[in-house]
Hints:
Elements: H1 4-15, H2 22-55, H3 59-95, H4 99-127, H5 131-134, H6 142-154, H7 156-171, H8 176-197, E1 199-205, E2 208-215, H9 219-243, H10 261-292, H11 297-333, H12 337-371, H13 377-390, H14 394-409, H15 414-439, H16 441-465
Antiparallel strand pairs: 1-2
Organism: Xylanibacter rarus
Protein name: Multidrug-efflux transporter
GO molecular function: antiporter activity; xenobiotic transmembrane transporter activity
Amino acid sequence: MFSANKGKDLLAMIRNGQTMNGSQMLNLIAQLSVPSILAQLTNTLMVYIDASMVGSLGAKASASIGIVQSTTWLFGGLTSAAAMGFSVQAAHFIGANDFVKARQVFRQGIMATALFTLILTAICLVIAGPLPLWLGGGADIAPDASRYFAIFCMSLPVYQLGILSSSMLKSSGNMRVPSAVSVLMCLLDVVFNYFLIFSTRHVSVLGYDILMPGMGMGVAGAALGTALAYIVTGVMLIWFATLRSSELMLKKEKWTFAPLWDYLRNAAKISTPMGAQYIMMSGAQIVSTMIVAPLGNFAIAANTFAIAAESLCYMPGYGIGEAATTLVGQSIGAGQPRLARSFAYRTVFLGMIVMAAISVVMYITAPQMIGIMTPVEEIRQLGIGALRIEAFAEPMFAASIVAYSVCLGAGDTLVPACMNLASMWLVRLTLAAYLAPIYGLRGVWMAMAIELTFRGAIFLWRLFSGRWLKVKLG
């Protein structure tokens, strides 16, 4: 079922305009979804590992990362938005069997995103110092938080090109290489963190006492370990996409630095709403952090841990969503809108089923999931309560994740971005501001659960309306 050759044959059926039956469509969805889900889970595990390692240093260290986490998501999201503007176009061209134009898009993407991320890095470094205080963090956690954010910023240029390369490979239907590299990134993160966060110490291995060297950098070590993992794997993705991918390789291509405006305009058309959405959504996360901050360091740490633990549940939705983007994009490029609609419905319902099942596991194992990350009982109880509230919203969260990915594959980003923003700002933050003073951290997560359920409902409406299929690029 998971043969790479079988996946290529099924993708070729889309590009050649052949009819696919239900079994073949489900097989192809599985071929692309499973590696992508594994990649998403390993990315989440990396966050989980960071939180667990830093959590062992105490609540103050955890709060130092938690206070700037939403801002790191903002800048990471902007790099993803920039990459998607080019990879969605590539998916359409690959679906039409036009690999020359797909490679042209890739070259334009490398140059445009490289320039973009240099500007982004400069902005990050300028705001790193005052950022924790702007977000409501105390003077006791601000220095560590600023160092963590500044180190993260330094990895952005390579991270951006790695994200672009990964997105381009996925647009071609190659989910396996990005997934394998994501697993490696998680392993490298563990190794780097282990030596960078903790000081030199004695550890027991199979009954033997071993002196384990360490840098003792604490919070800064967690940032540096993650940055190094990003850089190593980013270089690997760039190498594979540009030199090894049969659909995308640039080594035999004549390089031109002249801008090709049609591709750049289409990229802007796709990426600008996504980028604005990331800014506004991350801004909302920052406001949410500011709502949580007055509740104290225990609440900040518990909120951070609960977010990390919950992401283990919703990452499968993002993995299926990546498959949906590729399948819908290639189907539209091949001139098969009915096939695109069939893939859309199947991926959305599969995402809802998978995340519903995982939410049950999350509810039951919430004490263990939070307990791994912190020994502090006050933080544990707050985090467990938050996770169990959120479990009820996961199926509808899946609907919003995968339906948005379907829209993205069609190049439909403006209306879905507005839907996400309206739901986040008008529903979640309004409710959180009202409920937090009454119920504390539980109130913030009650607001989140209600909002995600609402968001899933409006995205299902968008899906069944069929309006996402009417968007034209070029």
